[in-house]
Design brief:
single chain, alpha+beta, FAD/NAD(P)-binding domain, D-Amino Acid Oxidase, Chain A, domain 2, eight-stranded mixed sheet
Length: about 500
């Protein structure tokens, strides 16, 4: 994406101002620009710095939603999963799961087989089948063998959630939209009507009032806290999901595994992701600050208990992890009942000059965007109908091309033009210096943590937060951002502090 403008360079008025740079805001922004709106997206922190970089990385229908009777949500989700698999190959990738079935614990074979047949029917595909015990162990030798009857094989999908957000924003900017990170927004009102936003750059204090025909509140878990917003946001129940990331050699999985936790029969999972293995997730009420949710020791103990029960030949401790991370889901509704039974449906509300959207799932961002823009046409009748355009332009050309899938074909070609040396993987990760250089030049990187925790995931899938790569990263930051030694040292310390506080595993 081109260099973002200063506040003084912004237009005085936009058709649509979207507040919130996570998956919901990014999806609305992309679709609004596609439909002809003059759109501005603003994010108080970094793009995808909230829930949308701390999800479980799954693009899925949600088998447990089916179990809970949430038929519409499951149907919507599996259809969106299939669309994303077709239209974002390489960024959203098929993820076959095995769910082992044991004689001494639920679930039973026939119940799971029935549920997965229904799951497949909703998606319009046939992916699930029964594997006898020998075939299950051949696919995943790490499984617990005692009393193993076999396994159900089924398919969902995975992604890098932050890169999905950045790809949506980048495509929208390339098509004429404007996006700003690290830009706080407060709603402006003309009597009862929202008429625009007051923007401020905390870094330098620059301020600017912007008029808008409509403002969209897409701030997720912060939806009821947007300054100046009229009443109307639904009650939210922030639920925290925590995860562990292990080096592949510590938990050498060949493929994704899901199972029911021995303690409470909640579904948990482990799967290869970005050169490491991701394990999750918890589902607990979050009562701390939204800005920096932390995985609590009890959550890590819960995940480790589940991992040890399922993979007894690979006993793990929290200190064995490369990293931990936690995110807060903006679940709509009150605080009663088990967190895992709370609906993941999205919610919209409308006030004069404002549309709000919160809740929902990563998988269904397109559906939410469509609902918002249908409502927006009442104020902006010139918005074009949705049509049936693919999620990403020319996405099919990216099949099998990791860089093109994550950054777009033109960006990938320019990265490759930099030479073979910069395309070499950094350690055991899938990342290369060419990606880092591209992000520094084109993706509005303000801080080192933007680069290592969201533009790439080096800080999550490398030992000690990628400490071994910092000297090479520092040279790139100096060259591309003009940082002097003082600023580099300041940014490195900032990053180390964030990593220690939010992502470092407990000491062994």
């Amino acid at each position: 994406m081109p260099a973002p403008p200063t506040l003084s360079q912004l237009d005085a008025r936009y058709d649509l101002v979207i507040v919130g740079g996570g998956i919901t805001g990014a999806g609305i922004f992309r679709e609004a620009v596609r439909r002809g709106a003059r759109a501005l997206l603003v994010e108080a922190g970094d793009f995808a710095s909230g829930t949308s970089s701390a999800s479980s990385k799954l693009v899925h229908g949600g088998l447990r939603y089916l179990k809970n009777g949430q038929w519409r949500l499951t149907l919507e989700s599996v259809r969106e999963r299939q669309r994303l698999l077709r239209e974002a190959p390489g960024l959203v990738e098929p993820l076959p799961f095995v769910m082992p079935i044991y004689a001494d614990r639920p679930p039973g074979r026939w119940l799971m087989q029935f549920g997965l047949r229904l799951y497949d029917a909703m998606a319009g595909v046939r992916r699930s089948r029964w594997l006898p015990a020998g075939a299950a162990l051949a696919r995943e030798p790490a499984l617990r063998r005692e009393q193993l009857r076999g396994a159900m094989l089924y398919e969902d999908a995975s992604t890098d959630d932050a890169r999905l957000v950045l790809r949506l924003i980048g495509d929208a900017v390339a098509a004429g939209g404007v996006a700003l990170n690290y830009c706080a927004a407060q709603l402006r009102r003309d009597d009862a009507r929202v008429c625009g936003v007051q923007l401020q750059r905390p870094k330098d204090g620059e301020r600017r009032a912007i008029d808008a025909a409509l403002v969209v509140n897409a701030t997720g878990a912060w939806a009821d806290r947007l300054l100046g917003a009229p009443h109307g946001a639904p009650p939210l129940r922030p639920l925290r999901g925590s995860h562990l990331v292990f080096a592949a050699e510590r938990l050498p999985l060949r493929q994704a595994v899901s199972w029911l936790h021995i303690r409470d029969r909640r579904p948990v999972f482990a799967f290869p992701w970005e050169g490491a293995v991701l394990c999750g997730t918890t589902d607990v009420d979050h009562r701390g600050p939204l800005e920096a949710p932390l995985a609590e020791p009890a959550e890590l103990d819960y995940l480790l208990e589940g991992l040890r029960a399922q993979f007894p030949d690979h006993p793990l401790r929290a200190g064995d992890a490369l990293a931990v991370y936690a995110g807060v889901r903006p679940v709509v509704g009150g605080g009663e009942g088990a967190p895992s039974s709370a609906s993941r449906e999205s919610a919209l509300w409308i006030a004069p000059g404002l549309i709000g959207a919160t809740g929902g799932k990563l998988t269904t961002f397109r559906v939410t965007a469509g609902e918002v823009l249908r409502a927006a046409r009442r104020t902006l009748p010139a918005l074009r109908e949705a049509g049936d355009a693919p999620v990403f332009d020319a996405a099919a050309a990216a099949a099998g091309d990791r860089l093109a899938a994550r950054y777009g074909a033109r960006a990938a070609a320019r990265m490759r033009a930099g030479g073979a040396e910069e395309l070499l993987p950094l350690g055991a990760t899938p990342y290369c210096l060419a990606e880092l250089r591209w992000a520094l030049r084109h993706e509005a990187v303000h801080h080192l943590d933007d680069l290592l925790l969201r533009r790439t995931r080096l800080g999550l899938v490398s030992a000690r937060g990628g400490e071994d790569f910092l000297e090479r990263v520092g040279a790139l930051c100096r060259a591309e951002l003009g940082w002097d030694e003082t600023q580099w040292q300041r940014e490195r310390e900032r990053y180390r502090t964030i990593w220690r506080q939010r992502h470092a595993p407990p000491a062994p």
